[in-house]
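Task: sequence design from structure.
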């Protein structure tokens, strides 16, 4: 799992606010219980069937499977930090779970999480329609190899009722520092919840919106076509982008000194700190990125904001160092890494 991760390394449409778009499809094999009811033997047989299908598709899709039981805890953590696997999947891989990725880690398939397969496509920026196109093609390719559980009245059958129907979950990862600073984020999220949209933190369900980074996704996949759901969330994402940009403009108009001071201090700390914890770095990177988006600060050098957020997480930091690090070593190396990616010229706010 040492490939470059394409979605982190590019900035897509509306990239000043939308870090990435994801489309995920939940699928289960006909006649086999959901993973929560599988014992190890039947679970391994299920995974074997899925990986046999993966082998048939590998030449066209360049898919590479790995069983989680063969990975170290660090490697499993890195899968989560790259958003290629969920914390739930990697938490206790003692049975049969697997992850399949393509060469650029745009595609990832979780095998044996809450459903037998969760096929996901990740693209930079606001690209839900494009991600859906890829996911749909891959789903068709799998369906030619596997018999999925499907009901004529209810659609694809899944472990949780909210996924029944299309089995589709679309989401965008957004950076909303101005809405957080102006305290407008809470009311926006409340409004979104009323329309069937869910807001979660950086790593999805159960995580917090640290660094003003959130995931916004549809809640129900029944009663609409996939295209309708993707379009609806795209419209929501565009509205969120507009709200965030408006909040940034308001900060520039109503509190220019305070804004310049905040982003300037963050830039200064990142440029000179010798030790940075994971959470401190995430917040400071968020503040600097706000300054970059408003042309108050120079851009990062050689890395996108998304990439720096990921590279400074504990697992990927240790992968770059080539060894396990204690917390103190990670904090020192994190500070050094960020300074390597700060623009060489001074940023005057």
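Answer:
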């Amino acid at each position: 799992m040492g490939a470059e991760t394409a979605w982190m390394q590019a900035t897509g449409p509306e990239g000043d606010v939308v870090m990435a778009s994801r489309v995920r499809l939940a699928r289960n094999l006909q006649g086999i219980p959901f993973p929560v009811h599988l014992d190890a033997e039947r679970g391994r047989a299920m995974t074997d069937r899925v990986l046999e299908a993966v082998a048939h598709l590998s030449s066209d899709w360049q898919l590479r499977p790995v069983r989680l039981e063969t990975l170290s805890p660090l490697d499993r953590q890195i899968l989560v930090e790259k958003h290629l696997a969920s914390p739930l999947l990697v938490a206790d891989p003692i049975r049969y779970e697997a992850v399949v990725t393509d060469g650029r880690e745009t595609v990832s398939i979780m095998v044996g999480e809450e459903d037998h397969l969760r096929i996901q496509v990740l693209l930079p920026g606001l690209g839900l329609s494009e991600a859906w196109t890829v996911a749909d093609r891959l789903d068709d390719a799998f369906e030619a190899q596997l018999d999925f559980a499907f009901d004529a009245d209810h659609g694809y059958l899944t472990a949780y009722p909210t996924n029944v129907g299309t089995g589709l979950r679309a989401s965008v990862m957004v950076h909303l520092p101005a809405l957080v600073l102006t305290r407008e984020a809470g009311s926006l999220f409340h409004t979104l919840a009323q329309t069937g949209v869910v807001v979660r933190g950086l790593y999805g369900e159960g995580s917090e919106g640290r660094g003003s980074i959130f995931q916004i996704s549809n809640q129900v996949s029944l009663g609409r076509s996939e295209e309708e759901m993707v379009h609806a969330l795209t419209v929501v994402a565009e509205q969120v982008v507009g709200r965030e940009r408006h909040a940034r403009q308001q900060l520039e108009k109503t509190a220019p000194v305070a804004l310049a001071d905040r982003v300037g201090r963050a830039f200064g700390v990142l440029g000179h700190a010798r030790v940075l914890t994971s959470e401190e770095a995430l917040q400071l990177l968020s503040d600097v990125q706000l300054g970059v988006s408003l042309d108050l600060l120079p851009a990062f050098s050689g890395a996108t904001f998304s990439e720096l957020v990921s590279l400074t997480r504990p697992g990927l930091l240790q992968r770059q160092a080539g060894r396990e690090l204690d917390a103190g070593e990670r904090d020192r190396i994190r500070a050094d890494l960020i300074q390597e990616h700060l623009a060489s010229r001074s940023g005057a706010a």
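Residues 256-341 form one domain.
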